[in-house]
Amino acid sequence: MPFFEWQDKNLLLKLHVQPRAKESVVTGIHNEMLKLKIKSPPVDNKANKEIASYLANEFDVSKTNVELVSGQTSRDKRFLIKEPRVIPEWFKELTE
């Protein structure tokens, strides 16, 4: 099963998150999930907010169009991106 699923015009991403990284960046696939390193620590919802902001920027949508579906306190999360306007190069490379 891939790390993503299209639901009409929306994109559901399955993520494995590594907090407290030097930079926020997608690093590849980990156990059929998209591995994302983020700078924020996993406290006070900071990591989830940074993930939403990062994905909003990458897919050129507002933060309100990025929704945490599951994994509030887990490293494994699912985020829904509503009607992405841009498909990032890293996404294209990982889905070829």
Characterize the structure shown:
The chain is an alpha+beta fold and 96 residues long. The chain has a single domain, classed as 2-Layer Sandwich (Conserved Hypothetical Protein Mth637, Chain: A). The longest helix is centred in the middle third of the chain and has 13 residues. Helices cover 21% and strands 36% of the residues. 23% of the residues are buried.
Summarize it.
This protein is α+β, with helices and mostly antiparallel strands and 96 residues long.
List the helices and strands and how they pair.
Elements (H helix, E strand, L loop, with lengths): L3 E4 L2 E9 L6 E6 L2 E5 L8 H13 L7 E5 L5 E6 L7 H7 L1
Overall average pLDDT: 95
> Mind describing the biggest β-sheet?
6 strands, mixed
**If classified by CATH, what would the architecture be?**
2-Layer Sandwich
Strand content: 35-45%
Q: Output the radius of gyration.
A: 12 Å
Q: Topology as H/E string? A: EEEEHEEH
From the spread of the alpha carbons, the general shape counts as: globular
Helix content: 10-25%
What oligomeric arrangement do these chains adopt?
A: single chain
- What is the number of helical segments per DSSP (H or I, 4+ residues)? 2
The domain tally reads: 1
Total beta strands: 6
CATH fold-level topology? Conserved Hypothetical Protein Mth637, Chain: A
Low-confidence stretches are none
Distance from N terminus to C terminus (CA atoms, Å) equals 15 Å
What would CATH call the class?
Alpha Beta
CATH H level: which superfamily?
A: YggU-like
Question: What would you call the structural class?
Answer: alpha+beta
